[in-house]
Protein: DNA mismatch repair protein MutL
Organism: Pseudoteredinibacter isoporae
Amino acid sequence: MSKIKLLSPRLANQIAAGEVVERPASVIKELLENSLDAGASRVEVEIEAGGVKLMRVRDNGSGLGKDDLPLALSRHATSKIYELDDLEAVGTLGFRGEALASISSVSRLTLTSNAGDAGDAWQASAEGRDMVAELKPAAHPRGTTVEVRDLFFNTPARRKFLRTEKTEMNRIDDVIKRLAMSRFDVNFVLRHNGKAIHNLPAASNQHEKERRLAQICGPAFMENAVHLDIERSGLRLWGWVALPSFSRSQADMQHFYVNGRAIRDKLVTHAVRQAYQDVLYHGRHPAYVLYLELDPATVDVNVHPTKHEVRFRDNRMVHDFLFRSLHRALAEVRPDDQLPSAD
Ligand code: ADP
Ligand code: MG
C-alpha cells in the first residue's frame, strides 16, 4: 500500500486557511473585498460575540447565479482572473480563489446570492470532508449574503489564539475603517451584538470625503491635515498628510493605498519618514492617509496570500516620487521654515 495519499479537499482548505484566516477580522477582510469586487454600493456587516459566534456580510453587488455558487466555495476557483496575463495587471482586490474555500473549511458558512435578472436566489453551504456544496432555493434581493458561524469550531488550536471579544471586535473595526478609506463611494454599516457601531454614508465630493475621514481618524487629524494631489510621469499621489505639529507617539495613523489596496511597505514608510525627517522630533511618527496610483502592470500584488505587501517594478522611481511629493506638500504649508531643498 502506498504511503502517500491525497489530502481531502477539506484538509487541503484548512491548511490554506492557516495562511489567510487568522482571526475574525481576516474573514471580514476577505468577505468585504469580495463585496467590493462585486461592485456593491452598500455593505452591511453584522457581528456577534466578536465574530466568533457570527459574522454576516450582506451586499447589493452583482450576485452569483445558481451554477456559480458551488464553484465560489471551491478552492482555486475565481471569476477574477482567467490566465497568467491577467495576473500581470490585477484590477480586483481578490484573485486567488481561496478565501471562501478556506473560511468554509474552518466554520459553518452559507452563501446566499441573487444575480438579479432571473429573480431567484439560491443558498449554498459546504461542511463535509469533501466540501461538496449543498444547494437550496432562498429569498434574497440582488446581491450576496455570506454568513460565517462558529469560526474555528473544528480547529481548536486556532481557536485558542483568539483574544477577548473586545479585542477581536477592534480588529474587525480596523479592517472596516481601512476599507472604508479606500472606497468613499460605498456605504458601510457595522453592527455588533445588535448595536450600531458605524454607518458611513457614501461620500462623493471632497467635503463628504473629509467628513468620513474625520469619522474614522478623528476630527483632530482632519483639522491638522493638508490635502495633496500630485501627478508626474504616470504616477499619482493624493490624500491627506498631517502637519508635523500633529505627530504621534506611535505609528498608528499611517494608511497607505496602492491602486486602492491597503498595504504595508518598507519602501513607502522610508520615503515618508525621509520627507518628514527635518520637521519631526526624534521618536515621533507622522499621520497620513495616502493613495498612490500607478500602472497596475508596474506593481506585483501577488507577493503574499494576505496581499498586504506589494513589489514595485521600479523601487527607486516610486521612492523618489513619494519623497519629493510629500516634501513639497510639507514645504508649502510651512513657507517660513527653512526646509532643505528636495532636489
Ligand atoms: P477570489 O475573491 O480570490 O476570487 P474567493 O474565494 O474570495 O476568491 O471568492 C470566489 C468567487 O466567488 C469570486 O471570484 C466571485 O466570483 C465569487 N464571490 C465571492 N463573494 C462574492 C460576492 N459577495 N458577490 C459576488 N460574487 C462573489
Ligand atoms: Mg476574495
